[in-house]
Amino acid sequence: MTVPLRPVSAVNALADALRGRVLSGEISPGTSLPEQELSALYGVARPTVREALAVLVHEGLLRRERHRSAQVVEVTVADLDDLMFVRRPLEDLMASTLAGRRVAEADAALGRMAALPAEAPWSEMVAEHMALHQALVVAVGSPRLERLYGSLAAETRLGLVRLRAVYPDREVLVAEHRELLDAIGKGSPEEARRAVAAHLDHGWGE
């Protein structure tokens, strides 16, 4: 029996387009996104724009105040420092638990990251980067750890936009993640924890 494919809705298509532009840094932090301008630019009705923006507000990529246009969330250096302060103990738990194990889903995300062409939007690197780290957390098998980590996803993704300037050569980012997965997969708990700590410290303070 053939199941017909459902077409992507205009809301989802617009949300995808805007998400990609935000996560590639094309739309800068703090930028306002007026509904009328987006409606004219993309040729869709304002209710469609409103719903697409609501999707991104829910994801934490945009914020919206009453009677004001939605804006891209700004993640400051202080925000990133605090984000790392909270992420470190979570990823430390992940590293000590997974030491000596390979996580197939993380390896697959690394493979997709490595296969991206040089001209691919940075948002695609962000997506695979997030998929890799999420796969490691999920592999731990703790729903609470996964839930806590997921609550940091929006700020983490926005923080990754900053890394575009730190990694003009994307192969360096791929190599660092390959080394990370090797350290976790082959190392002792202490070695895995040290590798994760070093990985988190590198780049974010730039």
UniProtKB/TrEMBL annotation:
Q: Does the keyword Transcription apply?
A: yes
Q: Which domain of life is it from?
A: Bacteria
Q: Where are the transmembrane segments?
A: none
Alphabetically ordered keywords of this record: DNA-binding, Transcription, Transcription regulation
InterPro entries per UniProt: GntR_C (IPR011711), TF_FadR/GntR_C (IPR008920), Tscrpt_reg_HTH_GntR (IPR000524), WH-like_DNA-bd_sf (IPR036388), WH_DNA-bd_sf (IPR036390)
**Which Gene Ontology MF annotations are present?**
DNA binding; DNA-binding transcription factor activity
Q: Pinpoint the HTH gntR-type domain residues.
A: 8-75
Gene3D superfamilies registered for this protein in UniProt? GntR ligand-binding domain-like, Winged helix-like DNA-binding domain superfamily/Winged helix DNA-binding domain
What protein name is recorded for this chain?
DNA-binding GntR family transcriptional regulator
**Which species is this record about?**
Streptosporangium saharense
